[in-house]
Amino acid sequence: MTWLVPLPVVIPLIAAGLALAMSRRSRAQGIISVVALSLVLLTAVVLIFLTHHQGPQVVNIGGWGAPVGIALVADRLSALMLLISAIVILCVLLYSLAQGLADGNEGAPVAIYHPTYLVLAAGVANAFLSGDLFNLYVGFEILLAASFVLLTLGGTGERIRAGSIYVVVSLLSSILFLIAIALIYAATGTLNLAQLSERLGDVDPAMRLVLQVMLLMGFSIKAAVFPLSAWLPDSYPTAPAPVTAVFAGLLTKVGVYAIIRTQTLLFTDGRLNTLLMWAALLTMIVGIIGAVAQDDIKRLLSFTLVSHIGYMIFGISLASTTGLSASIFYVAHHITVQTALFLVAGLIERRGGTTSLERLGSLAKVAPALAVLFFVPAMNLAGVPPMSGFLGKTGLLQAGVELGTPLAYAAMGAGLLTSLLTLYAVVKAWNKAFWQDAPEPLPDTSIPRSMFGPAAVLASVGIAIAVIGGPLYAYTGAAARDLRLQSPYIDAVLVHGERGAGQSSDASGDDS
Questions:
Q1: Taken in order 206, 208, 211, 213, is the CA torsion positive or negative?
Q2: What stretches in the chain show pLDDT beneath 50?
Q3: Deepest in the core among 18, 44, 127, 142, taking most CB within 10 A?
Q4: Is 511 within the bounds of a domain?
């Protein structure tokens, strides 16, 4: 069933074209978008099953076998990322549709929103499935184009400024990535990830280090790893709530995914693991200090987003099966929890008229369900037992203890401090917004149930990850072992390419 692999890219692109053709019929656009993203979600569920039991699934675009053609590859890691991203993208779409109905938005922004949002979904899927570096670059550029449109919806001066910052930073990342691609092709004669893993070993070590640094810099900008993270808190909070939520939940994780893929497949000598661990430590500490200092919920969440990227980079830097497994688990947890919190921030802004903690208050009295909806994912983000955040952090601590170096213990200490300060920051936000009396009367507005529902679903998914923590950790452990072995991915891509298009990739089935 390898024909399923390109569907998460193809379906949203076809739907984007249909939505654009229906630009004057907003209801039809909404139906097209929901149906398309529901199909992507179903496809991701099937791919999870196939990759877990039959090994990586490979499709060569245009019938050109790897390494000549472009390969789309679904393995355990990419299938999990597809599933989590599909859940998040669909929930955020439903939230935005409900918001549009509540606000009566029937104008131009709606006509632009749906096609662009679907293109964004296609770009995310393409990045996760890409089997070669240039196609990964294409996925990033699709994300960049769609992101700028979504960030600047409404055309306010603040949004244009934030969107401009985002584009400039993203272009810098893309330029670094493109130069690295050119150098890699010049050195190896290929951009296919599977073949690169075999050829990069023959490249001069100094040149290989330069290539690794350039790729890491490009991906670290997108992932908001310190010191390349200063752009994020100024870019995300100004966008509409659904846009901010999907950006915060997903886009930085595409950068993290790219780091995982290249570090485990292309650069396995561990020469930069110490640098990555320092970056993880500083990302956690600097990000959470920024969060503690904020008096606006969106900016507070933006800084916590930066700080928790550090946990994922820490797991990668450990370069062990336990560390990678915990990092992958934490990525899945954080995508759902962070998205849920930004959606709830949108609900707070709607009910309280602002996200400023100095002007909010008394929300627990007037909207008790909203108070619970913020509290649950906030505690999950802080890592309160027995939630999924606690499980992910425990796995990372276990991996750090296994390594046992002074720097690993320092990073673990930074992780524990970050967790405590995260708890302090979200409790402070909850206390000011929900418990303390409001300095002035709140607007007499209501939250439609149709907006409340998608945020509640995502908060529930965060809890569900904890409930199925054991099986999910078994899955991420298998994904980490595949990454460390490399052979399941390489054999699936190259053997499939040699046999030509149109044939099954059952040769990878020994990975089950």
A1: negative
A2: 106-109, 499-512
A3: 127
A4: no
